[in-house]
Recover the amino acids of this structure.
């Protein structure tokens, strides 16, 4: 199951008119990375839960045949159900065997087969795939016992401690779950795995394990992460920017380390550096922008800025949000 129902508030204004997993990553919907990751490890039957702007995913992904998988959708209406509440709604499709639940906003190449094998061998009720957090980024610490059981979910690490102590473990958003987990998922209400389900199961003595994996892992839930990860992938390919279909860049314009969505126009003498440019934006002649997200002000006019979102300002026909 791909968990894709979130609002993506920290990615506003990129999530105006689309949900977070529908945002383009290197000219493809972000959720396609998760679908292909699961398919690579032999998982072909998928459920995607949706709430905010559900058609933005369904219109791009369809039934999954383009990716060699079979997709069912669970549309959460009228209220969103949370990470574990989402599973309650489709438990009849998941109760037959071990299954994977994964966030739809990550990019990774970690060995999923090894994590599943560990889960089966240890007969755990749940196995959370973990990874080290050497930079002490703002991800909750997960403490495990020497035997691999999760001891507790702690707070955020102190970034000032990076390099002064061993890297804490963090949760990657990938769960390997046995059907018995449904004993701890309440029926018909909002619930969250880390806040509600796992603490209750751990208190009851159930085997909730952590599996420390190696490999690359990226999470794109903020504007800064979305930009930095995009630029890192472009650098591997020897490119400094990417432009989607229909973009027009004047030969006398300067575009550096930036991501341009569909039909962007960059006119003569304009300069953009480390920017995210939304669909149909026009960067006028001589305009200069750096470290900003730019979308059409008209597209944002009916959108209320979420509380967690960065504020921006209207400049001409565009809404500009600093990164």
């Amino acid at each position: 199951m791909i968990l894709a129902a979130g609002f993506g508030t920290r990615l506003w204004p990129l999530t105006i008119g689309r949900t977070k997993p529908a945002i383009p990553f290197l000219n493809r919907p972000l959720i396609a990375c998760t679908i292909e990751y699961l398919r690579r490890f032999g998982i072909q039957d998928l459920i995607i839960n949706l709430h905010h702007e559900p058609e933005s995913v369904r219109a791009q992904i369809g039934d999954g045949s383009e990716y060699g998988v079979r997709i069912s959708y669970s549309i959460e209406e009228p209220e969103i159900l949370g990470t574990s509440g989402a599973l309650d709604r489709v438990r009849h499709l998941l109760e037959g065997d071990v299954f994977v639940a994964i966030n739809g906003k990550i990019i990774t190449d970690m060995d999923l087969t090894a994590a599943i094998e560990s889960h089966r061998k240890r007969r755990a009720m749940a196995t959370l795939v973990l990874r080290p957090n050497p930079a002490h980024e703002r991800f909750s610490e997960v403490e495990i016992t020497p035997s691999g059981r999760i001891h507790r979910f702690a707070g955020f690490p102190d970034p000032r401690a990076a390099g002064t102590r061993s890297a804490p473990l963090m949760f990657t958003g990938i769960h390997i779950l046995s059907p018995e987990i449904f004993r701890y998922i309440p029926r018909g209400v909002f619930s969250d795995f880390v806040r509600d389900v796992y603490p209750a199961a751990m208190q009851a003595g159930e085997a909730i394990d952590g599996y420390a994996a190696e490999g690359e892992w990226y999470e794109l839930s903020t504007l800064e992460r979305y930009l930095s990860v995009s630029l890192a992938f472009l650098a591997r390919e020897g490119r400094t920017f990417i432009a989607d279909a229909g973009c027009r860049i004047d030969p006398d314009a300067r575009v550096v380390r930036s991501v341009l969505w569909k039909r962007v126009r960059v006119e003569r003498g304009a300069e953009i550096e480390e920017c995210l440019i939304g669909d149909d934006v026009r960067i006028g002649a001589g305009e200069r922008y750096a470290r900003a997200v730019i979308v059409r002000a008209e597209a944002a006019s009916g959108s209320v800025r979420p509380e967690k979102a960065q504020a921006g300002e209207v400049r001409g026909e565009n809404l500009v949000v600093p990164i």
Remarks:
- The domain at 223-322 is CATH 2.160.10 (UDP N-Acetylglucosamine Acyltransferase; domain 1).
- The first helix runs from residue 30 to 40.
